[in-house]
Design a protein that fits this description.
With 357 residues, the protein is α/β, with parallel strands linked by helices. The chain has 2 domains: 3-161 and 341-356, Rossmann fold (3-Layer(aba) Sandwich), CATH 3.40.50; 167-336, Rossmann fold. 46% of the residues lie in helices and 15% in strands. It has 15 helices and 13 strands. It has a 7-stranded parallel beta sheet with strand order 3-2-1-4-5-6-7, sandwiched between helices. The radius of gyration is 21 Å and the shape is elongated. Its main location: membrane. It is found in: Cell membrane.
């Protein structure tokens, strides 16, 4: 029996690939022990137990960004967290640690090294986080979702994805998807979404240009987000929904996607071979633009800056794309070449490699 400790969390970008790998390990051998290390504050505190895994916790110790009181206390607090993880590794007989970034990953990497336990790093974003930058220097193996991610020893393995995405047969599910959203399976569909909370820029742009989409012969599935107050005009061919709990069906219906470019979003759209228009979130350190860069270079997607997405830009750039079948066909072929559906299996192979050493 092998005992795995998967460390990471904080956001869905860390938790979802972690859970995909956990599911892959459990499916391969139910006798193995799959443990998760996270914090009490992160999203993992809710999602990990719901998926049926034991969550071990470590104190959240943010890296200091400025010389203040928290920075002075950081060394003591961080070493205490490392010591705590070392005790967990010994007590649970952990054979290998797999980190996905976030507050739990950094102490896990150092604890694993001091306990002489191999560890593997997976980085979901094209611009890596600090914990993974540090961890990659001593890792037994490093996997990245996007080619060109600047981590030592990195190999492109793709993103571990949800099973419902990996196993999706879009053509076979299209009729079910159309019925689910009250749309027509025979008409081409533009899917617009900005995440669970929505994206005001996307909502404003398509709230002002949805008629142009319909006039181009398309229908529009617009996921506005739970906080949106965008009105639903109740027009045939325009489905306005606040939240979608079956993104697999939304993707099954989509012939083109307009969305933000979070790492998981880009990975899922690419894996399914769907042409895309990405509108990177303007707040942050630019990682969303980098996440989309490989798809744009390959010709599978185009990029529009957040500040430039207006109803006029939809009419000038996106509506012509809806009318250009040959261009979308080329984009779809490029997406099929760049997308990776085997991210989970690839990360599991890295884990096996680390154990073999």
């Amino acid at each position: 029996m092998t005992t795995y400790l998967l460390a990471g969390g904080g956001t869905a970008g860390h938790v979802n690939p972690l859970l995909a790998v956990a599911d892959g390990l459990r499916a391969r051998d139910a006798a193995d022990d799959v443990l998760v290390l996270g914090t009490r504050e992160g999203l993992e505190s809710r999602l990990v137990p719901l998926r049926g895994y034991e969550l071990l916790t470590v104190a959240k110790v943010p890296f200091p960004r400025r010389p203040d009181r928290a920075a002075a206390a950081f060394p003591t607090r961080f070493l205490r967290a490392v010591a705590h993880v070392r005790r967990l590794i010994r007590a649970r007989g952990v054979d290998v640690v797999i980190g996905f970034g976030g507050y739990a990953a950094a102490p896990a990497y150092i604890a694993a090294r001091r306990e002489r336990v191999p560890f593997v790093v997976h980085e979901a974003n094209a611009k890596p986080g600090l914990a993974n930058v540090l961890g990659a220097r001593r890792a037994a193996a490093v996997g990245v979702a996007f080619a060109g991610t600047p981590l030592r020893g990195a190999r492109e393995v793709g993103m571990p994805l949800r099973r419902e995405i990996v196993d999706l047969d879009a053509a076979a599910s299209r009729a079910e998807a159309a019925a689910h959203f009250g749309l027509d399976a025979a008409r081409p569909t533009l899917l617009v979404f900005g995440g669970s909370l929505g994206a005001l820029r996307l909502n404003t742009a398509f709230g002002g240009a949805w008629r142009d989409v319909l006039d181009a012969g398309w229908q529009l599935l617009h996921v506005t987000g739970q906080g949106s107050d965008l009105p639903d005009p109740a027009v045939d061919g325009y489905a306005v929904v606040r939240y979608v709990d079956r993104m697999d069906l939304a993707f099954a219906l989509a012939d083109l996607v307009v969305s933000r470019s979070g790492a998981a979003t880009v990975s899922e759209i690419s894996a399914l071979g769907i042409p895309a228009v990405y509108v990177p979130y303007a707040v942050g350190n630019g990682e969303q633009s980098l996440n989309a860069a490989a798809s744009v270079r390959a010709g599978a997607a185009i990029l529009i800056a957040d500040a430039d997405l207006t109803p006029e830009r939809v009419r000038d750039d996106i509506v012509p794309l809806l009318r250009d079948d040959s261009r979308r066909t080329a984009m779809r072929a490029a997406a099929a070449r760049t997308g990776i559906r085997t991210g989970t299996e690839n990360v599991v192979a890295l884990i096996d490699e680390a154990l073999a050493r």
